[in-house]
């Protein structure tokens, strides 16, 4: 899990952050601002400073925040002078927006605030629908407004062209002041509180944020249009409330609570995608009538509150359908305030000691947690004090033991850090007998300072005799809280801090088990000393190993001959009648031969007409062990070459998930031992993923490519790796990247196993927790009725009114389950507005009949409609994968091995496309650092969908509108290249491309939106387009996942096949160039391109239908800026 940050403000207005992977508070050093309150989310943090101004701090990232400004130049045809800017009085403005209603001259488009800067000048966008226009970028129509085309016709009376300019947000990693309103009457008084949330509102576009604030007069305000591309928002809008508000809290979803001066709480209802500000208020009474609510904090499904007597309360029964909850539960402890962060984790600030506490034990099953734990992390500003103490301690031989005693008193013990809650009687400790000066420097703080322990006047300072007090008092004059053992906090925000239930934090103990004085005296170990130490130990171990081998060389090698048997009860799927699950007894027998090789046999005993029979499987013939995702069974399939050809794998099911994992790990270990496959995969390994997200790897053998004896493809052995991915990408230098279904990037760490593979089947290191989120889609279908309009009652021949995308299977909200028992729902059903073809405001798509082409607006000929419902589910597993934060990716490509390079290159080129369409280049990728160091953003004038880099640094990409681009001058010295050239779609015009890939020194291949295969000619050595077939006579349709190979002449692909009987099984296809395809292993399918790292080959993609022509394009070439190259 990547690290995230907890934000807090101390009594002196300084803002600190604490990483989940660290042990020390880091000070936000910027402009010497003093803050009252902050509210954080994952991408940014908002705050109210002591000057009563609102500020926002956006974290630094390799991907810039860019916004595109557009203006349209409109002209009408004149019989005398042709097209000119003289328009009719009823026409739109000569310079306008896309609708033509707003006047928008180029010189009138200004930056929204000083925190933006222009990235380029205005230029004409010559791209129209993914295809280039004529020179000048004009599009023509009959009249305003109308359908525009790029071709000029005889009746084209008007024309327009789009001018584009990009602006970039430049105030990153610094506090940026939110611009004030132009009208001073809009904000009559400053703000006293604000809250950030709403980034996971149902159906809300990615990057949207809801910022709410409360003014000193008790009014509630909402910041409009706050998103990832517009972090400042546009303006403040007033939201009416039935009372005067004091404090406000907004959860990540649709919960919004407000505390009133009278002690009640207000709950906002009706918050959704179309109305993020909600529709109405509901009043919630306080827990007790004597003490009203002082502070409230909302999360995903919980609400915590603090009353005026400092008691902490938990609201039960809160959810999206019932935001008001049901009742209050009193919790232990007295707090000044509480804050609910991600995953409903809770932080609080103690009332008596102003210490920061974390609610331990909060899980989905126990949202109230178990106990409060104090956070004892240090701070950067305490470094000067520690340095002074360490210098004094180093002189202990001159001053005696008094110094050591004074130095140790400033570190809290472990017992204090683990105490169950804040003690009301606990006072703030001071370092040494002397305390801080009584008069502290004045600061603009609106919070009451807590009581302190006994103190002495500043005049008593010369009479103090303790040396520790002499060292601390001058520091106390510079930093008012340096005499205290712990910081005094005023506010905390955990909206951007992700703490999982199983995460182990380092916040609750000292930096080591040694006392503070020993920590100060310990010297750091330099990297040079560490390297010398490791080298010495390695030499000693090498000498010991050689010495032992020489002493026992004359002994014969002992070979153990033994038999080992494991039995159990499983269920077996009977492939013949009655085609059902049968209870069986299984026995795994492992024996060791005279040559020391271990082999195993799996026996399955079943009963037929009261007669005991069995089938057996030799594990040295097993090619794959694949978990089968099922809603009701914990099952897996065993594939052999013969059963792969027959489409009859051995399917076994266990009673529990743990039993299935144990059997799967044991069988996988036995298969690896029989084939002598151990440890991590080699750099030349072939990686693949199934349509369910399982990761498999195969080790190529010399027989695989031997021309005199071809190894049949169906005899390749695939072993499973832990983790869950949608895409995997590798090269022959051992660098492997993957992308999950939630667009999270993962890098291979060098381990093996994980997931259900534990013990001997997994490495002891480089295994990390991995999570993935995917969406389940169902469709609501309706037909138009002349009487009642659209209704859920269709014709007898229609599809189900609740179905899948094909309409063949009935899928209702109640009956639809997660993909398997390993997945769990993490959201409710919501309408998906991002389906292809567009939707109306309610998410409906219209068509003339089922099935047909759907569109987002209703016409007179539309008699049916549908809308897509989506629900998210989450899988938590483990594997040798480490997350590459913080950018979500949609595609990734790694350069294959260059012929003749022999792995001696300076670095490994890696290109990617983010989920927003930004093109990125990863810097610093090598064998020792496969994750790289940072992202380099490559500017584009439109979002991209796919990218691929070939062996000679040929970078090709496809935009979301289907345009193909080529990046020029890419080299190790210039990893991002100099310019991108645009290729017109050319021959495959009806099917714009959606991915393209060059490999080796050959030409690139691509497939269109209909997945037809095309070849780019004239770029290198000629390569013939391949043909896909099963045996000598039949075509193999289907869809495939991805397979990759490090180096070598053959080309690999995974493709979902269909047998003649229509059995929806899948197959692996192997193509040794220039031969045709032959069928290999089963159990893999999915919808993405297949990559191959070849010295001389074309990338063959996921083939559903073959094109009959080669893709020879001869058209204008344009760079990313739209200029003619």
Distinctive features:
seven-stranded antiparallel β-sheet, mainly beta, 1125 residues, 34% strand, 71 strands, 9 helices
Indicate the topology.
Elements: E1 5-10, E2 15-19, E3 24-27, E4 35-40, E5 44-49, E6 54-58, E7 66-78, E8 82-84, E9 95-96, E10 116-118, E11 123-124, E12 127-128, E13 131-132, E14 139-141, E15 158-169, E16 175-177, E17 191-197, E18 210-215, E19 220-223, E20 236-239, E21 245-250, E22 256-260, E23 265-269, E24 280-284, E25 293-298, E26 303-307, E27 311-316, E28 327-340, E29 346-350, E30 356-360, E31 371-374, E32 378-379, H1 383-394, H2 396-399, H3 402-408, H4 414-417, H5 467-478, E33 489-493, H6 516-521, H7 527-551, E34 563-573, E35 581-592, E36 598-608, E37 611-618, E38 624-628, E39 634-639, H8 641-646, E40 650-654, H9 657-674, E41 686-689, E42 695-698, E43 719-721, E44 727-730, E45 736-739, E46 745-748, E47 768-785, E48 789-791, E49 802-803, E50 824-825, E51 830-831, E52 844-847, E53 864-879, E54 881-884, E55 889-894, E56 910-914, E57 919-923, E58 934-938, E59 944-949, E60 955-959, E61 964-968, E62 979-983, E63 993-997, E64 1005-1008, E65 1012-1015, E66 1043-1044, E67 1050-1055, E68 1067-1072, E69 1078-1082, E70 1105-1106, E71 1118-1119
Parallel strand pairs: 3-32, 65-70
Antiparallel strand pairs: 1-2, 1-33, 2-3, 4-5, 5-6, 6-16, 7-8, 7-9, 7-15, 10-15, 11-15, 12-13, 14-15, 17-18, 18-19, 19-20, 21-22, 22-23, 23-24, 25-26, 26-27, 27-28, 28-29, 29-30, 30-31, 34-35, 34-40, 35-36, 36-37, 38-39, 39-40, 41-42, 41-66, 42-43, 44-45, 45-46, 46-54, 47-48, 47-49, 47-53, ...
